[in-house]
Write a structure and sequence with these properties.
The structure is a single chain. The protein has helices spanning about 20-30, 40-50, 70-80, 115-140, 145-190, 195-210, 215-225, 225-235, 240-250, 255-260, 265-280, 285-290; strands spanning about 10-15, 35-40, 55-60, 90, 110. By secondary structure, the protein is α/β, with parallel strands linked by helices. It folds into 2 domains: about 10-140, 3-Layer(aba) Sandwich (Rossmann fold), CATH 3.40.50.2300; about 155-290, no CATH class. Strands 2-1-3-4-5 form a 5-stranded parallel sheet, with helices on both faces. Strand 3, helix 3 and strand 4 form a beta-alpha-beta unit. Helix 5 runs antiparallel to helix 6, helix 5 runs antiparallel to helix 7 and helix 10 (about 255-260) crosses helix 11 (about 265-280). The longest helix is centred in the middle third of the chain and has 45 residues, at about 145-190. It is flat, with a radius of gyration of 23 Å.
Protein backbone atom coordinates (compact mmCIF):
# COMPACT_ATOMS: atom_id res chain seq x y z
CA UNK A 1 0.00 0.00 0.00
CA UNK A 2 1.26 3.48 -0.85
CA UNK A 3 1.35 5.61 2.26
CA UNK A 4 3.32 8.39 3.94
CA UNK A 5 5.79 7.23 6.56
CA UNK A 6 6.53 10.21 8.74
CA UNK A 7 9.54 8.48 10.25
CA UNK A 8 11.20 7.92 6.87
CA UNK A 9 12.29 10.18 4.05
CA UNK A 10 9.44 10.68 1.58
CA UNK A 11 10.13 9.15 -1.83
CA UNK A 12 9.05 11.14 -4.87
CA UNK A 13 9.08 10.01 -8.51
CA UNK A 14 9.70 12.91 -10.91
CA UNK A 15 8.69 12.12 -14.51
CA UNK A 16 9.70 14.50 -17.28
CA UNK A 17 11.77 14.57 -20.46
CA UNK A 18 12.22 18.35 -20.10
CA UNK A 19 15.64 18.69 -18.52
CA UNK A 20 15.13 22.28 -17.34
CA UNK A 21 11.89 21.38 -15.54
CA UNK A 22 13.14 18.17 -13.91
CA UNK A 23 16.40 19.85 -12.83
CA UNK A 24 14.52 22.74 -11.21
CA UNK A 25 11.98 20.59 -9.37
CA UNK A 26 14.65 18.11 -8.29
CA UNK A 27 16.69 20.95 -6.79
CA UNK A 28 13.67 22.24 -4.85
CA UNK A 29 12.77 18.80 -3.48
CA UNK A 30 16.29 17.74 -2.53
CA UNK A 31 16.66 21.02 -0.61
CA UNK A 32 13.60 19.94 1.41
CA UNK A 33 15.19 16.56 2.18
CA UNK A 34 12.95 14.50 -0.08
CA UNK A 35 14.35 11.42 -1.81
CA UNK A 36 13.82 12.00 -5.54
CA UNK A 37 14.00 9.58 -8.46
CA UNK A 38 14.03 11.25 -11.89
CA UNK A 39 12.96 9.31 -15.00
CA UNK A 40 12.77 10.66 -18.58
CA UNK A 41 11.39 7.49 -20.22
CA UNK A 42 7.64 6.94 -19.71
CA UNK A 43 7.71 3.16 -20.29
CA UNK A 44 10.47 2.72 -17.72
CA UNK A 45 8.55 5.04 -15.39
CA UNK A 46 5.53 2.74 -15.59
CA UNK A 47 7.69 -0.16 -14.37
CA UNK A 48 9.01 1.97 -11.51
CA UNK A 49 5.49 2.89 -10.42
CA UNK A 50 4.32 -0.73 -10.62
CA UNK A 51 7.27 -2.28 -8.78
CA UNK A 52 8.26 0.27 -6.15
CA UNK A 53 6.22 2.30 -3.64
CA UNK A 54 6.42 6.07 -4.00
CA UNK A 55 4.74 8.67 -1.81
CA UNK A 56 4.15 11.17 -4.64
CA UNK A 57 4.30 11.40 -8.45
CA UNK A 58 5.16 14.62 -10.28
CA UNK A 59 4.91 14.53 -14.08
CA UNK A 60 4.39 16.53 -17.26
CA UNK A 61 0.96 16.52 -18.88
CA UNK A 62 2.52 15.43 -22.23
CA UNK A 63 4.82 12.74 -20.78
CA UNK A 64 3.78 9.85 -23.08
CA UNK A 65 4.26 6.11 -23.45
CA UNK A 66 5.76 4.62 -26.62
CA UNK A 67 2.27 4.24 -28.13
CA UNK A 68 1.73 8.02 -27.66
CA UNK A 69 -0.75 7.56 -24.79
CA UNK A 70 -0.12 10.28 -22.17
CA UNK A 71 1.07 8.51 -19.02
CA UNK A 72 -1.27 10.61 -16.86
CA UNK A 73 -4.34 9.25 -18.71
CA UNK A 74 -3.09 5.68 -18.34
CA UNK A 75 -2.44 6.12 -14.62
CA UNK A 76 -5.76 7.83 -13.88
CA UNK A 77 -7.59 4.89 -15.42
CA UNK A 78 -5.43 2.40 -13.50
CA UNK A 79 -6.25 4.12 -10.20
CA UNK A 80 -9.92 3.20 -10.72
CA UNK A 81 -9.28 -0.55 -10.99
CA UNK A 82 -6.13 -1.03 -8.92
CA UNK A 83 -6.43 -3.12 -5.76
CA UNK A 84 -3.95 -0.85 -3.99
CA UNK A 85 -4.23 2.94 -4.00
CA UNK A 86 -1.90 5.01 -6.14
CA UNK A 87 0.14 7.85 -4.65
CA UNK A 88 -1.02 11.46 -5.11
CA UNK A 89 -0.19 13.06 -8.46
CA UNK A 90 0.95 16.60 -9.22
CA UNK A 91 0.69 17.48 -12.91
CA UNK A 92 2.86 20.08 -14.69
CA UNK A 93 0.78 22.03 -17.22
CA UNK A 94 1.08 25.28 -19.25
CA UNK A 95 -0.12 28.55 -17.71
CA UNK A 96 -3.06 28.67 -20.17
CA UNK A 97 -4.27 25.19 -19.14
CA UNK A 98 -8.03 25.28 -18.56
CA UNK A 99 -9.40 21.74 -18.73
CA UNK A 100 -8.98 20.69 -15.11
CA UNK A 101 -12.18 18.65 -15.31
CA UNK A 102 -10.41 16.12 -17.56
CA UNK A 103 -8.12 15.17 -14.66
CA UNK A 104 -10.44 14.96 -11.62
CA UNK A 105 -8.11 12.58 -9.76
CA UNK A 106 -5.05 14.85 -10.03
CA UNK A 107 -4.21 16.29 -6.61
CA UNK A 108 -2.56 19.54 -7.73
CA UNK A 109 -0.95 21.39 -10.65
CA UNK A 110 2.39 23.05 -11.31
CA UNK A 111 2.23 25.89 -13.81
CA UNK A 112 5.08 27.54 -15.69
CA UNK A 113 4.89 30.55 -13.37
CA UNK A 114 4.59 28.55 -10.13
CA UNK A 115 7.37 29.73 -7.82
CA UNK A 116 9.87 27.47 -6.03
CA UNK A 117 8.20 28.11 -2.67
CA UNK A 118 4.76 27.29 -4.10
CA UNK A 119 6.06 24.01 -5.56
CA UNK A 120 7.51 23.01 -2.20
CA UNK A 121 4.20 23.90 -0.49
CA UNK A 122 2.14 21.88 -2.99
CA UNK A 123 4.34 18.84 -2.41
CA UNK A 124 4.21 19.04 1.39
CA UNK A 125 0.41 19.57 1.30
CA UNK A 126 -0.12 16.45 -0.85
CA UNK A 127 2.08 14.32 1.38
CA UNK A 128 0.36 15.57 4.53
CA UNK A 129 -3.07 14.82 3.06
CA UNK A 130 -2.05 11.20 2.45
CA UNK A 131 -1.72 10.60 6.20
CA UNK A 132 -5.39 11.40 6.70
CA UNK A 133 -6.58 9.60 3.57
CA UNK A 134 -4.95 6.36 4.74
CA UNK A 135 -7.71 6.03 7.37
CA UNK A 136 -10.42 6.29 4.71
CA UNK A 137 -8.54 3.80 2.54
CA UNK A 138 -8.50 1.26 5.36
CA UNK A 139 -12.25 1.70 5.80
CA UNK A 140 -12.69 1.09 2.08
CA UNK A 141 -10.88 -2.25 2.31
CA UNK A 142 -13.20 -3.25 5.15
CA UNK A 143 -16.27 -2.61 3.01
CA UNK A 144 -18.45 -5.57 2.10
CA UNK A 145 -18.04 -7.32 -1.27
CA UNK A 146 -21.42 -5.98 -2.43
CA UNK A 147 -20.38 -2.40 -1.72
CA UNK A 148 -17.12 -2.83 -3.64
CA UNK A 149 -18.96 -4.41 -6.57
CA UNK A 150 -21.36 -1.46 -6.63
CA UNK A 151 -18.40 0.96 -6.78
CA UNK A 152 -16.82 -0.99 -9.65
CA UNK A 153 -20.08 -1.08 -11.60
CA UNK A 154 -20.42 2.70 -11.27
CA UNK A 155 -16.84 3.19 -12.46
CA UNK A 156 -17.40 0.91 -15.46
CA UNK A 157 -20.46 2.93 -16.44
CA UNK A 158 -18.43 6.12 -16.08
CA UNK A 159 -15.65 4.80 -18.31
CA UNK A 160 -18.18 3.73 -20.96
CA UNK A 161 -19.47 7.30 -20.99
CA UNK A 162 -15.91 8.58 -21.33
CA UNK A 163 -15.33 6.28 -24.30
CA UNK A 164 -18.52 7.45 -26.00
CA UNK A 165 -17.67 11.10 -25.34
CA UNK A 166 -14.20 10.64 -26.79
CA UNK A 167 -15.63 9.01 -29.92
CA UNK A 168 -18.01 11.92 -30.40
CA UNK A 169 -15.05 14.27 -29.96
CA UNK A 170 -13.18 12.56 -32.80
CA UNK A 171 -16.22 12.78 -35.04
CA UNK A 172 -16.46 16.47 -34.24
CA UNK A 173 -12.80 16.94 -35.21
CA UNK A 174 -13.50 15.30 -38.58
CA UNK A 175 -16.36 17.76 -39.13
CA UNK A 176 -13.96 20.59 -38.31
CA UNK A 177 -11.45 19.32 -40.87
CA UNK A 178 -14.17 19.12 -43.51
CA UNK A 179 -15.05 22.75 -42.71
CA UNK A 180 -11.43 23.84 -43.23
CA UNK A 181 -11.15 21.82 -46.44
CA UNK A 182 -14.36 23.32 -47.84
CA UNK A 183 -13.29 26.84 -46.83
CA UNK A 184 -9.92 26.47 -48.61
CA UNK A 185 -11.66 25.22 -51.77
CA UNK A 186 -13.81 28.34 -51.82
CA UNK A 187 -10.80 30.58 -51.19
CA UNK A 188 -8.97 29.16 -54.23
CA UNK A 189 -11.36 31.11 -56.42
CA UNK A 190 -11.06 34.35 -54.48
CA UNK A 191 -8.13 34.39 -52.03
CA UNK A 192 -8.16 37.41 -49.71
CA UNK A 193 -6.24 38.42 -46.61
CA UNK A 194 -9.55 38.75 -44.79
CA UNK A 195 -10.40 35.17 -45.71
CA UNK A 196 -7.08 33.87 -44.37
CA UNK A 197 -7.58 35.79 -41.12
CA UNK A 198 -11.05 34.35 -40.74
CA UNK A 199 -9.76 30.81 -41.33
CA UNK A 200 -6.94 31.24 -38.78
CA UNK A 201 -9.40 32.48 -36.17
CA UNK A 202 -11.70 29.53 -36.87
CA UNK A 203 -8.83 27.03 -36.49
CA UNK A 204 -7.79 28.64 -33.20
CA UNK A 205 -11.38 28.35 -32.02
CA UNK A 206 -11.35 24.63 -32.87
CA UNK A 207 -8.09 24.18 -30.95
CA UNK A 208 -9.45 26.01 -27.92
CA UNK A 209 -12.56 23.84 -27.96
CA UNK A 210 -10.42 20.71 -27.85
CA UNK A 211 -7.16 21.37 -26.03
CA UNK A 212 -7.07 17.78 -24.87
CA UNK A 213 -6.88 15.18 -27.69
CA UNK A 214 -6.89 11.77 -26.01
CA UNK A 215 -6.73 8.62 -28.08
CA UNK A 216 -10.08 6.88 -28.55
CA UNK A 217 -8.27 3.59 -29.03
CA UNK A 218 -6.44 3.93 -25.71
CA UNK A 219 -9.75 4.52 -23.93
CA UNK A 220 -11.21 1.45 -25.64
CA UNK A 221 -8.31 -0.72 -24.45
CA UNK A 222 -8.96 0.42 -20.88
CA UNK A 223 -12.72 -0.12 -21.07
CA UNK A 224 -12.48 -3.53 -22.84
CA UNK A 225 -9.03 -4.85 -21.81
CA UNK A 226 -9.55 -8.44 -23.06
CA UNK A 227 -11.23 -7.65 -26.39
CA UNK A 228 -8.09 -7.16 -28.51
CA UNK A 229 -6.39 -10.21 -26.99
CA UNK A 230 -9.39 -12.33 -27.99
CA UNK A 231 -9.49 -10.69 -31.42
CA UNK A 232 -5.80 -11.43 -32.02
CA UNK A 233 -6.46 -15.11 -31.35
CA UNK A 234 -9.17 -15.10 -34.05
CA UNK A 235 -7.19 -13.53 -36.91
CA UNK A 236 -4.23 -11.37 -37.89
CA UNK A 237 -5.72 -7.90 -38.41
CA UNK A 238 -4.25 -4.51 -39.24
CA UNK A 239 -4.51 -1.64 -36.75
CA UNK A 240 -7.28 -0.04 -38.84
CA UNK A 241 -9.22 -3.31 -38.92
CA UNK A 242 -8.89 -3.63 -35.14
CA UNK A 243 -10.25 -0.11 -34.74
CA UNK A 244 -13.15 -1.03 -37.04
CA UNK A 245 -13.89 -4.03 -34.81
CA UNK A 246 -13.71 -1.78 -31.75
CA UNK A 247 -16.33 0.49 -33.29
CA UNK A 248 -18.61 -2.48 -33.90
CA UNK A 249 -18.07 -3.62 -30.31
CA UNK A 250 -19.17 -0.14 -29.17
CA UNK A 251 -22.35 -0.42 -31.23
CA UNK A 252 -21.58 2.39 -33.70
CA UNK A 253 -23.58 2.27 -36.93
CA UNK A 254 -21.97 2.40 -40.39
CA UNK A 255 -22.57 6.14 -40.75
CA UNK A 256 -20.84 6.86 -37.45
CA UNK A 257 -17.92 4.59 -38.39
CA UNK A 258 -17.60 6.37 -41.73
CA UNK A 259 -17.47 9.74 -39.96
CA UNK A 260 -14.89 8.45 -37.49
CA UNK A 261 -12.53 7.24 -40.24
CA UNK A 262 -13.36 10.01 -42.76
CA UNK A 263 -14.56 7.55 -45.41
CA UNK A 264 -17.89 6.84 -47.10
CA UNK A 265 -20.34 4.17 -45.96
CA UNK A 266 -19.56 2.09 -49.05
CA UNK A 267 -15.96 1.75 -47.91
CA UNK A 268 -17.20 0.79 -44.44
CA UNK A 269 -19.27 -2.05 -45.90
CA UNK A 270 -16.33 -3.28 -48.01
CA UNK A 271 -14.16 -3.24 -44.90
CA UNK A 272 -16.73 -5.31 -43.01
CA UNK A 273 -16.82 -7.86 -45.84
CA UNK A 274 -13.04 -8.25 -45.59
CA UNK A 275 -13.34 -8.61 -41.81
CA UNK A 276 -15.95 -11.36 -42.17
CA UNK A 277 -13.58 -13.30 -44.42
CA UNK A 278 -10.59 -12.82 -42.13
CA UNK A 279 -12.54 -13.72 -39.00
CA UNK A 280 -14.21 -16.65 -40.79
CA UNK A 281 -17.71 -15.43 -39.96
CA UNK A 282 -20.30 -17.65 -41.67
CA UNK A 283 -22.72 -16.12 -44.14
CA UNK A 284 -25.71 -16.61 -41.86
CA UNK A 285 -24.08 -14.83 -38.93
CA UNK A 286 -23.69 -11.05 -38.90
CA UNK A 287 -20.28 -9.51 -38.22
CA UNK A 288 -21.80 -7.34 -35.48
CA UNK A 289 -23.22 -10.36 -33.67
CA UNK A 290 -19.86 -12.13 -33.90
CA UNK A 291 -17.94 -9.08 -32.58
CA UNK A 292 -20.41 -8.47 -29.75
CA UNK A 293 -19.71 -11.93 -28.32
CA UNK A 294 -15.91 -11.46 -28.22
Amino acid sequence: MFCVETSAMNKILLLSNRHDFSERVNRILVAKNYKVVVEADADKALDLISNKPYDLLIMDQNFSLSDKTPLILFLLQKTKTSIEPYPPIILAVPDNFRHHEHYPEVDDYIFETTSDNEIALKVSTCLEAMKYLSIETQQYYESSFDEIREVLERELSKRDRQLTSNTILLMKKNDQLYYVYDFLNKMEKNPTEEGFDRLKKQILQFLNEDELTESFFSYFNITHPEFLKTLDKSASLSLTEKKHCACLKMGLDNKQIASLFSIDTGSVKKGQTRLKNKLKVTGTQSLRAFISKL
